[in-house]
Task: inverse folding
């Protein structure tokens, strides 16, 4: 398939693992916008994609900041005039990773960080992108999609994971609620439970699952799953998928 | 059983429904502290319990406000010197009930209200009461208990319920995480999924389930279930219970 | 409360643990019928209850055998003329405990045993007792009840537990389906997930949770929970409850 | 990718909907064996695939009959000498569809039919294919796979669906248990919750989702999802996926 000149994708939250791999995969079919809190996170990925003859744009914006997000979409309008939004991935990791620690040692700030990045962020991002996805329903090659990166903590409040689990589970149910509201309008909202540690492959390598350690998830395999979810026919939408290494206990 | 002169209970979040009924039920065995954002919510219940020869204390405090909560526990220390904390019920309803409305009509404030009341509130309350409950493990008549009032939205992101469900599900998983951390230390953390509308009986009536409309839950029946959870033997703790009217579809 | 002269209870599946404890607990309020595949399982419990001035009847019948079950209810009609059925507990353990073993070492018979005891048994038992429970809806002191003893395997297919989990999960969903069909008609169907090993106390002792090892569930505590479920007001039915030792990992 | 000359796939349970579509999809990469209780179910599909230059073999066998299954695999050995088993789909619908009806109107035979087709069938099929899948782990192009077709009743005991739900939920948990046992050995076991009615397209048409009614699932879309599951990298196995029409309420 040739790269569409009409539709684009956004990946919010880009690091060397899932974000980079997903951006690379979606760039095979769409120009890709990478949103991140710091340009350091996306600079190399943007360069890597553009060097390969595809198109990527990096924008510095915090998804939990409504104004920053608004300004990001104005930039996109200028950079990709006439393009519609076909695919969005919310892959933001909270600002400073909340510690996995005993409940009584946590601070209110630890909780804030988790809720902000996981729930407020998806809320703001969703309010920005859903109207744009709805505009693309009739014309986009695949049903316009909002994908959310979840984790084991999205469905389980393990010991010592209290604030992380509170944020991830709230995020998951928010995505579920959006799926029920916007699915019938043609927008596909899906949530992926990533159950395992993600391998960060040497970025200079061509995208491949080769060499993934047995106890790690290849980010390219996640990216393939996200692409699969995006391209599902509207008669068979998946709302939730789990992904884990074959040797993972669960 | 005579009212203990050594242990007390706290109900955070008191209205004419569940909060009042639970306070009345627990006052049969313990002096009860009622926490609420406004004295109007607890005044009548406190009077009703004290008039009946039992003991209740009302304290105005917002569970989401760390300082207010700290000051509340200082008041309790003075009012109930030498008492240990045996039972706590987190029954707080978010500040102004977030609207059940289309996602794109919600504001960031609607989300804040839900997360604050449901998650931050339980987090702060938990950090205040868990150390006190741990102190009571060896001596209290029943395992020290933290009960949390959940709802259908705690396990399901229905259409139009996005911010409420995000808050309730995060709250539920937080409680689950606390159960896994503090259960083995002897503190019983349980979550109740209240699946249905609650009847608000005429407060002048003696506590009874009589007259509950078929499609409503009697708050006295909830209170009985909470008391049952509190008195469970430590060899058979329940972590989650659902409660619904017999005719409720689910 | 005096023993009712109008209503009785049935416990199907009686051993020295849960079955015995539940029979003893329910005999405080009802004459109790104990069903078991062999008289050796109930003889001592029946004697123990009758010696204490309460009433128990033992009947040898396999719940998975329709004819045996039919004949058992004819016996009950003669032994307890005019009595209505208020409470039933399905606590049957499959005929010979299916081995917890590698899937490829299991035989078709292992599967049969699990499905027969767990699903066919509850199906037959349900078809026998539900019509009787429906007859008691208007008059019984508490909503007529069908309680089912589940296990961790009821909600989880662990490695090596395949046939046990297939039977228990099918049983759980069957109970859930009955709850949805007969709840609105006034019959309370509830399922208990017993998550842990059950202590078998010295039967000569008075019913008490004392001395339960930390990693075991007291059968008397299970019995208390079953009694609680039976006595719930119809405005607040519980469909599922979990019970585990406070130190159990989950 | 060229059709492999080394590996084959089996679809157990073939009708004009899911079974046919999955067989067609997998025949793009493997010779496909179609198992069905009657040759009428697979004859046309086998002809359709062979006519298209791919290879399909139909075998009449009831998956719940151990001897028939054994004989089927002997036939396969002769027909596809030297081939290894790479992909298996358990898509069997119980013998005569158990009625969706009131519990008290069901017979023991209704239950038998559901348990036999759903649980016994998967058990027998699993015992036959898992050893063959294990043999293919090192050499097959994708991780050897066992896919199971589930339904809404696999996770929910709705009113009137008791025996169907008992069978489907037992089947689901059995598949889950196999996933936990054989995943670490390299065999991918996944369960698909098909939540909606399946469209049966005009079989003379080329496989396409075109024309699927809005409230139906395209069987070709299911087939695409099954193929996706089969080709997942072993670092990112999905155990469970849900599939429903975009307008379906859930």
Result:
């Amino acid at each position: 398939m040739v790269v569409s000149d009409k539709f684009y994708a956004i990946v919010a939250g880009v690091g060397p693992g899932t974000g980079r791999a997903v951006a690379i995969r979606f760039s095979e079919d769409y120009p890709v916008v990478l949103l991140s809190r710091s340009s350091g996170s996306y600079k190399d990925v943007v360069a890597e994609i553009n060097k390969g003859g595809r198109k990527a744009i990096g924008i510095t914006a915090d998804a939990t900041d409504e104004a920053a997000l608004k300004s990001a979409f104005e930039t996109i309008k200028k950079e990709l005039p006439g393009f519609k939004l076909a695919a969005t991935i919310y892959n933001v990791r909270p600002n400073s990773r909340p510690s996995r620690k005993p409940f009584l040692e946590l601070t209110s700030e630890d909780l804030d960080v988790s809720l902000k990045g996981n729930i407020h962020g998806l809320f703001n991002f969703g309010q920005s992108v859903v109207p744009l996805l709805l505009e693309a329903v009739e014309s986009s090659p695949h049903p316009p999609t909002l994908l959310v990166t979840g984790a084991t903590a999205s469905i389980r409040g393990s010991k010592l994971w209290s604030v992380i689990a509170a944020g991830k589970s709230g995020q998951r149910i928010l995505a579920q609620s959006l799926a029920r509201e916007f699915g019938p309008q043609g927008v596909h909202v899906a949530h992926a439970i990533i159950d395992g540690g993600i391998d960060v492959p040497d970025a200079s390598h061509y995208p491949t699952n080769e060499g993934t350690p047995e106890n790690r998830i290849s980010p390219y395999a996640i990216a393939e799953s996200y692409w699969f979810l995006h391209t599902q026919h509207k008669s068979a939408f998946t709302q939730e998928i789990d992904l884990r290494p074959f040797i993972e206990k669960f």
Notes: Chains D and B do not touch (no CB pair under 8 Å). Residues 68 and 74 of chain D are 10 Å apart (CA to CA). The two ends of chain D are 37 Å apart (CA to CA).
